[in-house]
Amino acid sequence: MAYNILVINPGSTSTKIAIFADEEKVMEVGLDHPVSEIEKFKKTIDQLDFRYQVIMNYLKEQNYDIHQLDACVGRGGYLHPIPAGTFTVNDAIVHDLTIALHGDHAANLGALLAKKIADPLGIPAYTVDPTAVDEMQDVARISGMPDITRRSKIHALNIRAVTREYAKSIGKKFNEINAVVAHMGGGCTTAVLRKGKIIDMYNGLDGDGAFAPTRSGGVPVGDLIHLCYSGKYPTEDAMMRHAVGDAGMVAYLGTADMREVNKMIEKGDKKAALIKEAFVYQHSKDIAALAAVLKGDVDVIILTGGIAYGKDITDAIKSYVGWIAPVAVIPGEREMIALAQGALRVLTGEEKAQVYEEEPEDSNY
Ligand SMILES: Nc1ncnc2c1ncn2[C@@H]1O[C@H](COP(=O)(O)OP(=O)(O)O)[C@@H](O)[C@H]1O
Ligand SMILES: CCCC(=O)OP(=O)(O)O
Fold this sequence. Notes:
Elements: E1 4-10, E2 14-21, E3 24-32, H1 35-38, H2 48-61, E4 71-75, E5 86-88, H3 91-98, H4 108-121, E6 125-128, E7 142-145, E8 148-149, H5 156-169, E9 179-184, E10 188-194, E11 197-202, H6 221-228, H7 236-243, H8 249-253, H9 258-266, H10 270-293, E12 300-305, H11 311-321, E13 327-331, H12 335-347
Bound molecules: adenosine-5'-diphosphate and the ligand CCCC(=O)OP(=O)(O)O.
Adenosine-5'-diphosphate is lined by residues 11, 185-187, 213, 256-259, 305-307, 309-310, 333.
């Protein structure tokens, strides 16, 4: 008998859900949340009951009997640094995500929704490879200012999944691969994996690395300090929003959609062409820098995320970094199957679910 697993992946304006029977996807849908609905909620956590209801209504409409489920699994967000793998959604996870202790993000809702659905059914709720996965080597944590530590914030779920997929395609194991993986989606993060462990990255969120559709990436620190004190952005929230949410491609061009940028370029828009070129250029620099972490011993460079559907973009990145290692393009994301597989490994006993503990007192996170 197959295990029936409900997979929940919340994005900023939609919640993707899927049902897997073991590894076979039997249903998948993206439930869109109109901006008019979402903007009624002040904080992401306030959307929990709304999204829960949308999911339950959809399953009801489909006449899906939730009592068939063996487990629920949700994408996990900003927890304190943890190892990769599958975690049972326990009270400590619920606590940290509910108060957004380590940051606010729609992904925080994934584990909470999984637990909210699983608990009344008496089945387990899991989260797999959340954005808080931290396998960084110590040297990578040094920033240049002792009171600022570089942090791991990463598309760990998709990055690990595509690396696993690539390893399988060449008959190797995940933990045999040295890779540099650029996830280029709504958010962009680039990771370097040594033997399957993400030992360093550009996280794109903390002003680190290439800019993304709505995020600034790294900017000159002196100019940033001047801007913070200029009075133009009077609160920390406003300044944060300026760098993460209103920055990157959308700030230059008014769109976060690379396909729209392509249309602008087709119509002769020179600024759009320059910003797209800069996107490619900055990602290529990040990839090459992370290849240096492996001293050039790179088995593969993987380009993934929605923007990797753009062949002109992946070709352009190849032209910068193709001399380092073979470049594999795995566009889109593998998050739903990766979540299902993570839950399945625990259900079948292949792996033990890890336990998330409250943050240690001496943590400087
Ligand atoms: N064929 C394509 N060519 C270039 N960019 C694309 C293509 N398809 C999607 N994208 C871009 O991918 C980005 C969204 O990536 P995606 O991984 O779907 O984001 P999310 O982080 O929301 O899951 C958008 O900028 C979108 O324009
Ligand atoms: C740090 C990775 C989390 C992230 O940026 O996710 P989205 O691309 O979904 O915003």
